[in-house]
Design a protein that fits this description.
The chain has 182 residues and is an alpha+beta fold. It folds into 2 domains: 3-85, Roll (duf1285 like fold), CATH 3.10.540.10; 90-177, duf1285 protein fold, CATH 2.30.270. Helix content is 16%, strand content 42%. The strands form 3 sheets. It has a 6-stranded mixed β-sheet. A 6-stranded mixed β-sheet has the order 9-8-7-12-11-10. The longest helix is centred in the N-terminal third of the chain and has 11 residues, at 3-13. The protein is elongated, with a radius of gyration of 18 Å.
Length: 182
């Protein structure tokens, strides 16, 4: 399976609005094998050991990325190809408040996906202490270390009865950056 063939199938399936994500959750094509495509933990995409240099191609493939159980696939209406993801397929690299009241935080991934940090896109802490946000479907983005440190500066200490933690609000939801050591 070549990347040219996959990208052609993706382009064919994305007729119309290019901003709209393909409905990969509705597609259940046969598995066609694995391809040597890897998303590194730093957000870079590699094919046969070579980094992708065209962001537009990465965005195209990311639009048809699907996670089933703990495996990742590129999916078109006619085939499903396995790929490797080191950690999470996306990174949260930017954030901003959308209003003067600082009540809605918009976050942006390394592939320019932007959304409000809210109940639909929650912040979660892994067992290892890394922060992740659900981007779309069941695909997550790891919060980049620089963003984390910026959030620590704006967070406040809150004692929830089980100990103190650093928290902040967005879209009327409370998000924790983790427990504080006493």
């Amino acid at each position: 399976m070549s990347l040219n063939k996959i990208s052609a199938q993706i382009s064919d399936s994305q007729q119309g609005d290019t901003k709209k994500m393909p409905p990969v959750e509705l597609w259940d094509p046969p598995f066609c094998g694995d391809i040597d495509l890897e998303i590194k933990s730093d957000g870079h995409w590699f094919y046969n050991g070579t980094v992708f240099k065209r962001l537009s191609l990465v965005k195209l493939f990311a639009s048809v990325l699907k996670k089933e159980d703990e495996k990742y696939f590129l999916v078109t209406p006619v085939e499903k190809i396995g790929i490797t993801v080191e950690d999470a397929p996306f990174l949260i690299t930017q954030w901003q408040w959308l209003d003067e009241q600082k009540s809605q935080m918009q976050v942006t991934t390394n592939l320019d996906d932007s959304f409000i940090l809210d109940a639909e896109h929650p912040l979660e802490i892994s067992d290892a202490g890394n922060l992740y946000i659900t981007v779309r479907r069941n695909l997550q983005a790891r919060v980049h270390r620089n963003v984390y440190y910026q959030w620590v500066e704006l967070a406040h200490e809150d004692n929830n009865g089980n100990g103190a933690e650093l928290v902040f609000l967005s879209a009327d939801h409370r998000f924790s950056l983790g427990a504080l050591d006493n």
